[in-house]
Specification:
mainly alpha, 15 helices, transmembrane, EmrE-like, cell membrane, RarD
């Protein structure tokens, strides 16, 4: 529980860190995030002696290909998120992570042919209604929210299909993006706009620390996911958008219209319905397993 809470609180505090990088273009921030994350993961793999496991995984062309596609969606998610903080749209970014669980469920229906329970359909229907209300209130769809939710939903779907450790998979993903990221950093350095050298040692340190800042929550997430039920982890994940929403309204001073409040209220209702159904289903599954393992439910057959 502590590892899960630490993960989602760290992700929730990301806007504060990226606000410190406001003078750097979002594209360059993402490039540094990729490169320094890869460097940090190489250190982790060396300490944990995980290179052999990584080499075994990398021999599968299908796995590497899927992770390369996942990396593309991850880069989109990172870029749009940094851009959202850059233009002071933290509240809209938080909406993306509020509706992400519902988008993931919808992707499961469309791609994996999963069947939904009635309350899950209700939650998705409410989420669609909320997007329509927010679109009407703003005069346009909440593109930042929709791109963040869909890109991370597709990323999670691919990771579920691949099914390998978070450190190994992220190492392959960042390695796939590293040539592009390095090229962008070299070009920025050559034309004098690169923040790593030209914006002082403080900015240099902040950019290098993007490596551990990115990787540590993913590592704690992997540790939490193997120790507590996914239903519990699913409830904890709302810590991230709640923190982002609060910071957007208070620290970043974003103004919410009545239409936005209504849209967010509908989203929160949808999430309560979805969470209630998830926890109820988890309790049912736990009860069924207990019945199977209960010695009192076993019949003793007397010999003839």
């Amino acid at each position: 529980m502590i590892l899960g809470a630490v993960t989602y609180v760290l992700w929730g505090l990301f806007p504060l860190y990226f606000a410190l990088l406001d003078s750097v273009s979002p594209i360059e921030v993402v490039a540094h995030r990729v490169v320094w994350c890869l460097v940090f993961l190489c250190v982790i793999l060396s300490i944990s002696r995980g290179w052999r496991a990584l080499l075994v995984v990398s021999h599968s062309r299908r796995t590497v290909g899927l992770l390369a596609v996942a990396a593309a969606f991850l880069s989109i998610n990172w870029g749009v998120y940094v851009y959202a903080v850059h233009i002071n749209k933290v509240v809209e970014a938080s909406l993306g992570y509020f509706i992400n669980p519902l988008v993931s469920v919808a992707l499961g229906v469309v791609i994996l042919r999963e069947r939904l329970r009635p309350l899950q359909w209700t939650g998705i229907g409410l989420a669609v209604s909320a997007v329509l209300v927010l679109s009407f209130a703003a005069g346009h769809p909440p593109w930042i929210s929709l791109i963040l939710a869909s890109s991370f939903g597709i990323y999670g779907l691919i990771k579920k299909v691949v099914g390998i450790g978070s450190v190994q998979s992220l190492a392959i993903e960042t390695a796939a993006l590293a040539p592009i990221a390095l090229t962008l950093m070299i070009v920025a350095f050559a034309d004098g706009s690169g923040a790593l050298i030209h914006d002082g040692p403080g900015m240099t340190l902040l950019l290098i620390l993007l490596g551990p800042v990115t990787a540590i929550p993913l590592i704690t997430f992997g540790a939490a996911a193997t120790r507590i039920p996914l239903s519990t982890l699913g409830v904890l994940q709302y810590l991230t958008p709640i923190l982002q929403f609060i910071m957007g309204v208070t620290i970043f001073g974003e103004v919410m219209s009545s239409g936005q409040w209504l849209g967010f209220f509908i989203v929160w209702i949808a999430l309560m319905v979805f969470t209630f159904d998830t926890l109820r289903q988890a309790r049912r599954a736990s009860g069924q397993r207990a019945d199977v393992l209960d010695p009192g439910s076993l019949q003793v057959i007397e010999p003839d």
